[in-house]
Predict the structure.
Amino acid sequence: MTDNPFTGAPGHEETTLGVFSKAEVGLANRNSGAFLEMLALDITPVGAHYLLTHFDVPLLDAGAYRLVFDGAFEAPFEISLEEIKAEPRVTMPVTMECAGNGRAGMEPRAFSMPWAYEAVGTAEWTGTPLAPLIERAKPQGGVVDFAFEGADFGYDNGVGHAFGRSLTPEELADLEVLLVYEMNGQPLLPQHGAPLRLIVPGWYGMASVKWLNRITAMSERYQGFQQVETYRFRQDAGEAGEPVTEIRVKSLMVPPGVPDWITRKRRLSPGPVTLQGRAWSGAGVPVERVEVRIGETWHEAKVEAPLGRYAWAGWSLEWEAAPGHYVLACRATDAKGNVQPMKAEWNLSGFANNAPHEVEVFVED
């Protein structure tokens, strides 16, 4: 008998357009997306924020919790949750998006969590900056990576591992990384990483390790499964690919009118309608422009100021809806000139699909 029952087990399977396997449906039942109607809110309620959990949710005792700093530090140490809470307190609104958001819209589609548009949310995260604690541990000369390991353990493609990610010293210097213990003013819920998680603003969600229990300074690059085997842009399975990092510019629309229960297509009465939604980009780059397509014409929307550097911006457009059938769409442009493409560049895992959000609408006679 082997100690690893998943060795040689089927991995990611071939997919068929519009057909989802039992395993993918199971993933969709376990991982919840945001309600698109909640895009009308600046801050996503905790219960409506998207969730992606690779393995089981660890149920950790906050009173016994310790965050370990080990590896190539001159002064390694452990710190309790209460001691972390005694550090300078920061609250930061951050838009977080799953790297796989939009995967279901790429063809051929990758076999994985079949996200459409819903894997995004904005919360007010409260915690303390990571950098001073890294400095307290005194990284040794020659440190090239910091590994962040969570308490969640499981298997992917037959490989057992705790979920872990890493950041280089240069990345840490550029990023406002937080150790977080509250979400929207309340203690983290178990599914959101209680008692402590990482928040890496401006990067896709895989970097924000949940149930964080260890930070290791390394003199060689971290080779954890979730760092080197996945979350990389690849065209072929055999290539190393490029790492997924900063969020790409994107926008979503609050679906107007009322929905059909199954298809989520919309019905509207004719007359004035306020179309609205949210737009964001990565690395703290602001959104400068949002356009909305009605029929064959793109119209300039009004863009609001965001709540913070790493939070999405609201947008709105007044539309005099005439009877007919429409496929509405929205696209954003950020301050660096990045524009949502009409079709995102394909990659093997379906990451970072930022093609425009489309909503099918029927305006009654």
Notes: Helices lie at 22-30, 81-85, 131-137, 169-174, 225-228.
